[in-house]
C-alpha cells in the first residue's frame, strides 16, 4: 500500500501537518469524532490521481466520504495550506541550490470545463466549448513556481505579469528571499513590446519570440521544460478535464499537484 501514490508518506505528512488549521471540539455535545486529517488527505489524493467523482469515492478505502474530502479540500485551500506548503518545498530546493534562477519559463494549457462555472469561457481551440486555462511559470529546471486559472478565452499575454508577481518569496538561502528570475523565456503568444518593457521594469530580461520570424530561434531549447511540467500536471487525471464548477476547488487541485511535483524534485536529490 505504501507504493500507491495516494498514500501519504511520513515525510510528506511531517511537512503538511503543521500547516493544517486546528479546530477545537465543543466541550458539550461534541458530536461524532472527525476523521483524521491524514486519511482525508489520502482521499483527496485518490481523487486527484484517479479523476473519480467525489460521490464514487470507495468507502472501503477508509478515506471517508467524498463530501468529507471535498469540504476539507475547500477549507484547507481557504486557509492557504497548499500555498504555504509550496513555499516550504521551494525553500528546501533553494537551500539545496536546485532552483535555477537564471531563467524562468511560462506557458499556458487549455482544459475543457464540462460543467462550466467561474473562470471559464469559450475556447478558441475547442470549437468555442466551455474551457479554462492553466497558466504556469517554472524555473529553468521545470519546477513550478506559480500557477493561475483563467477562462479558456483569456489571452496568454494578459497573464504574463500576474504570473511573475505570483512567484512567492523563496527562502532557504542567506540573504533576502528571492522571487525574481534573471530572465524570462516565452513563446510568440506573449509577443508585445509593452509587456517586454514591463518585464524589464521588474529587472528581468525578456526572451520573447517575435511573430513572423522563422522558427529555430533557439528559445525552444529552454522552453521545453514548461511543456514537460504540463505533462506532469496533466498526469493527474483530475486536471485533464475540469469537472468543478467552483474555481477555488479546481485551483486547490492545481496547487496541490504543483506541491507534489516540487516534492518529487526534492526526492530526486536523494
Summary of the model, kept short:
This is IS5 family transposase. The protein is an alpha/beta fold.
Q: Count every beta strand, where a strand is a DSSP E run of 2 or more residues.
A: 7
Residue stretches low in confidence (pLDDT < 50, at least 5 long) are none
List the helices and strands in order.
HHHHEEEEHEHEHEH
Largest sheet geometry: 7 strands, mixed
- Which outline best applies? globular
Classify the helix fraction into a percent range.
25-40%
Q: Estimate the mean pLDDT confidence.
A: 91
Alpha-carbon distance between the two ends:
22 Å
Class from secondary-structure proportions? alpha/beta
Number of helices: 8
Radius of gyration: 20 Å
Beta-strand portion reads: 5-15%
What's the arrangement of secondary structure elements?
Layout: H1 10-16, H2 37-50, H3 66-78, H4 81-95, E1 104-113, E2 121-122, E3 130-139, E4 144-151, H5 160-166, E5 183-186, H6 193-201, E6 205-208, H7 220-233, E7 241-242, H8 247-267
Parallel strand pairs: 1-5, 1-7, 5-6
Antiparallel strand pairs: 1-3, 2-3, 3-4
Helix pairs in contact: 2-3, 3-8, 4-8
